[in-house]
User: Fold this.
Amino acid sequence: MLLRRTAIGVVLALLVALPVMAQDYKRGQVAYHRGDFTTALRNWWPLAERGNARSQYSVGVLYDRGQGVPQNYAEAARWYKKAAEQGYSSAQYNLAHLFRRGLGVPQDYAKAATWFRKAAQQDHAEAKEALRKLETKRQVKTRQAAPSRANYQVGVRAYRRGDYVAASRIFRALAKQGNSHAQALLGVMYEHGKGVSRDYAEAARWYRKAAKQGHHDAQRNLGLLNLKGLGVRKEYAETVKWLRKAANQGDAGAQTNLGIMYENGHSVSRDYAEAARWYRKAAEQGFAQAQYNLGLIYADGMGVLRYFGYAHMWFSLSATNGNKQAARSRDLVAKEMSPTKIAEAEKMAREWLEKHKKK
Assistant:
């Protein structure tokens, strides 16, 4: 009898919880439509954490559009996936788009087609149309892929042996066909004057074409041209926009430069904690400049608790990767540490290297 009462109590609790969740979602929805994205997130987040698919989808939308939170396609993809796996068709559709464009996830037409198909099977009209277009595009690309790949590799070999004129001719032909890798490399050639006259505006034009297809190298390079005002108007907002797109795809150079933007408050509010977060992402990939910058952050206690041990560790790792300035900074910070603390920092650096040893 006690077990039965307990079971009934659970059912009653669930019946009470469902209307409460619906009310919280509705409050978030009202806030969203009046443009109060922070309140919308505050209402949806707990529901999303508890597994509510609609709320998970809505949180994904906020990250996708940068509403109430910094735009972060990787985080958007994470929330869409949670909802999509529960069968929420709108999340499946949006996740497919991220895979199609390579935003926050590696570009993958097969996965895009899979999620479009799942949404289409639920009679999602836009997903049906997107799937039709994607499959048509894939059929065309399949016919073109073999010769395009072969030509691209010929161009790469020409570039590596220093025959830039031949490489530029091959890359240009492929770039005009929409090959994002060729577009990105053609941009590099215009930026550095290899095989063509140096032309920053032309470099920016080709970078932009590749960047819009989700090519992270092109996104980073376009962001840096905007930062320097080369070939385009110097505009920090555009710099942050393109660096963030590349950074969300795991591009260490973009992550480092985005960290610098936050550290200096260029087109974003100065935020040392956010700078440290981006430096750490790149540092964990072994990017020497990010490791050095993260060491400075810990040495100065900006955005993180001041800790010479971590500063020493990151300076050591950066020095190992060839940063001579990092070696000097490590020696300076060591003067503020006891022999025991130095030994601990050296151990942390060794353990990091062992953990991240390339297979």
About this structure: Residues 17 and 195 are 67 Å apart (CA to CA). Residues 1-18 have pLDDT under 50 and may be disordered. The radius of gyration is 25 Å. Residues 14-134 form a domain with the Serine Threonine Protein Phosphatase 5, Tetratricopeptide repeat fold (CATH 1.25.40.10).
